[in-house]
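DEPOSITED CHAIN:
***
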Amino acid sequence: MNAVNLDTSQVLRRDVHALRRLARQNPEAYAALHAESIAALAARNLLKPKLEYPEALPVSAHVGEIARLLESHSVIVVAGETGSGKTTQLPKICLDLGYGRRGMIGHTQPRRLAARSVAARLAFELEMPVGDGVGYAVRFSDQVGPRTLVKLVTDGLLLTEIRRDRWLDNYDVIIVDEAHERSLNIDFLLGYLRDLTRRRPDLKVIITSATIDVAAFSRHFDNAPVVEVGGRGYPVAVNYLDDAATEAAADERLMACLEDIERAPLRGARDVLVFQSGEREILETARFLRTRLGERWEVLPLYARLSARDQQRVFETGGRRRVVLATNVAETSITVPNIGFVIDPGFARISRYSFRSKLQRLPIEPISQASANQRMGRCGRVAPGVCYRLYSEADFTGRPAYTDPEIRRTNLASVVLQMQAFGLGDIHRFPFLDPPDPRAIRDAEKLLEELTALEGGRLTPTGRTMARLPVDPRLARMLIEADRRGALAEVLIVVSGLAIPDPRERPPDRQAAADQAHRDWADERSEFLGLVKLWQWFEETRQASTRAGLKTLLQKRFLSPVRMTEWRELHRQLLLAVRELGMRVNEVPADYAAVHRSILAGSLSLIGLLDEKGQYLGPRNLRFRVFPGSTLARATPRWLMAAEILETSRVYARSVAAVDAPWIEEAAGHLLKRSYSEPHWNPKRGEVIAEESVSLYGLPLVERRAVAYARIDPVISRSLLIREGLVRGAMPRPLPFLTQNLGLQTDLTEREAKGRRRDLLVSEEAIADLYDERLPAEATSAAALERWWRKATPAEQARIIFSEADLTLTASALAETDYPSELVMRGNAFALKYRFAPGEIDDGISLRTPVGLLEAVDASALEWSVPGFLPLVVEAWLRSLPKSLRRPLAPLPDKVPAILALLERPDRYRQGRFTQALGTALRELHGISPGADDWSAERVDPHLLINVQVLDEKGKLIAQGRDVNALRAQFAERLQARMGAG
């Protein structure tokens, strides 16, 4: 046999593609698989399910119509109210038509509980055991065998199968049940199936829905035919509360309805179903009713966290009348038997994600008209029913017709990730029944970018790995980071614990006792480590206990046995998944930092900084508190991270731990906003320093931290190195070229000061330009400059050693003897410093003397200044004379040369006081004889009078001035003490 004449009707559908490939490539393998497939199909054909349609079910009247439409169309829509029988009878119709043999009949349910209970019911009616002809696959449990004809499966698990089986070749038929719930998984399935049925027309798809906007489902599948079947067998009376009654307390309104029910005569179904918005409300109401009703009624809760045994109690009728308190799990998915009355407060807790605030909200809000009618439909099955709506009719008519589909109120990160990873198309063009808001899609993409799963719109290697881990993207990212940091053992425990509802129970009436019981596993810094401690205790206890003993002990410690089992099962699945990906589970315990830095990788937008009010400031100006039940509720770590931040009555962080700001900064490097201010040259470090501020989504992580600026802005850093470090010489270790260049600059500056001029040394700007032209671009710090210098060629080194020609504007004609560097008085050499700085105290010439030599400074000798200054000094003193004496000397500059000639004679130069020598010269040359009082030092420019700088023992300047006698008086005591000591 070959692929050309392969009779596909004789083999399983899933094997067809493989057989055709093997026929060309490997005949022996083809023969083996062909024989195996024929045998498997034969074994399935041996099953003979019992196919009967109870007349009491409304759908039974439509069996023929449904069968005809299914044979002639790829997709049909079956609409029927709760109780119509569509969930259990549609698989029978498919089996009757011959489907379910070459491939299974896949039957999706939105919840695990529903999948298990429907499988059990269908197996009972078909007279085939669960796990054989009828099977189910839900998270943590798989009861599917090789002969399974009908497979109940959660919609989420079917989506997971699509990754491996893109054509759904394992199936003849897909029944999407409860499509009106419009969960994210259901909408994703509906979009995928619409395209798949166009590519695979032999696949049959049945969409079942309550009578809620059925036309929308039909339009989505190219106007697929709709079969509408009846629902309740008996009418339901609806009683509304008037406006006055709605003002009463909720418990009292409920009690009034129950009292009314007790007074009514019994007619068939006698039990009451009361809808509540959540587990907490159920437990509080149960406590209230048990107190008020006593033994007359049995009060039974029904919610997802309840153990399987306790959930089963609601299906066991008989005995006392029952009040079943249920969440909206009983609205559509579960049919509670013997319900004659429904009490509907009109509220539900609806999960809503805000892409603006980035918060998952869990508000309790009014239900839609469609949900209210679904609740009403839970009674009237076996006798006329009564529905009590604890709100007015006007309130009902003012409510929206339908509940928003989940795709409009949840974060889409997981959807975007899966679609990218498995090539399921562009989410912007995917055929959703209700396309999501483009802003919500962008928000999901931003979260994936935060998790480093997306970059530039494309999936990263990290993102591809995340998509292969069966948990939320945030949790998947934690596992990847834990593998890198050697903390996978601990983080596997944490992630699997976070992915399920918290197994630690806090009953409203026993919260203190529960908290005390849980304290054994508490960690003062981290609730994540609390999970690790709990896990370790559980594993040790499990191995040492019987199953019954373990359950009793768990309940005693306020731990849910169901959730603990789920935790362990998910941990096992994740352990297998990470090993398949080549990750290594550490055997040596990881430290606090490794564990929490791993978790932080998935929680970057779930961090907080403690403020002065004891609240936490989070990203995007979010403010929140730690959940009151947290072990860290009274602790106040400066920084913390959370596994989630939810808004209920307030904004709370759950599952929190203390972290360090540097961890956040490292993990969020790709998200940080950095700003820099005040870049400046630091001479000690030999580099440009700036003040850095770092924020994450507006949350300040670092403020005004000094950082090296070269890597941030090398251009500005190079410029400041040149201007401050090289031109001005502020370097920690001057290189040889700089020592020479600075020496030349100093020499030219001194020459300018001596000549009282500014036209000799080029400007600092010009010197900077020379360096800019001759230094490489990488010279941005002293260290970088040193590295370049060591590698530079001799020619390159020589090029940055400046010549006098490089640094001068005009030629200098100053004689060194005219501007001495020291002045000798009384056998002591005093250093002279020249400065051209008009207006400054040390402008001109400064003589530097230790305080101990101040007595050796000759005031009269200072009046003579230095030879280079003498012409200016002569003219200045002449100008200080009274006008009557100056007039004969006009013009003064013309008289100076002759006077200088006399003063510079060896017998006169520096002999006695300068003004006396000058007066003698005037008398000899011009016949003018100034008196001692005619000379006015105050009228002489200060820079022409030598400034005396007094230094202490360490060479530090302690005083300066141009009046030597005043300085001596200032230091008289020190001078006398010195003389006495001498």
